[in-house]
Amino acid sequence: MAAEKVDRRVRYTKRALTQALVRLVQERPVSKISVKELCERADVNRSTFYAHFRNPHDLLQSIENDALADLKAHLLADDKPRTASVVKVLEYAQDNAEVFLMLLEESDGGFQRQIMELAHLVDLQPSDRQGVSTPDSLEYMYLFAVSGALGMLSHWLEKGTPQSPDEMSDLLLRIIQHGIEERA
């Protein structure tokens, strides 16, 4: 029972620090955020912060690792078709919009690279309609598709997710598979 209590307190502390970091990053870059103001905003003692993290960048890295692990777990949870997997990613991003936006903006690029690697689990492969079959060409097409998908995700989250995850999934996959010239 004691371990469960500690675990719950640690989760609460991390959630409070995450929310505080999200709010502070809206005001200025993480490099300009002190541990003192982060702890004040989260209503957490500095000693508690230092028991878990070295500095605000370490907290950001921990949040990034947790988000990637959760996303991967969502993707590997069952063997669904590609459309369902994309919807799951979008639902997760929508449920964690503030954290996702912070990670997309504040990460050193590692979050985007990791998301691109996770995209292999979704099989976001563009169509090969023009018969481009060289490995280099297919790699460029894949990078273009995933980079575009990340741009769409970021824009969708910034707008407050006006379309449903199903609608965004349909649009995203249609663009990846058929290009932007095709009309719905």
UniProtKB/TrEMBL annotation:
Start and end residues of each HTH tetR-type domain: 11-71
PROSITE patterns, per database record: HTH_TETR_2 (PS50977)
GO molecular function: DNA binding
Superkingdom of the source species: Bacteria
DNA-binding region extent: 34-53
Chain segments annotated as transmembrane: none
Sorted UniProt keywords: DNA-binding
Name this polypeptide is given: TetR family transcriptional regulator
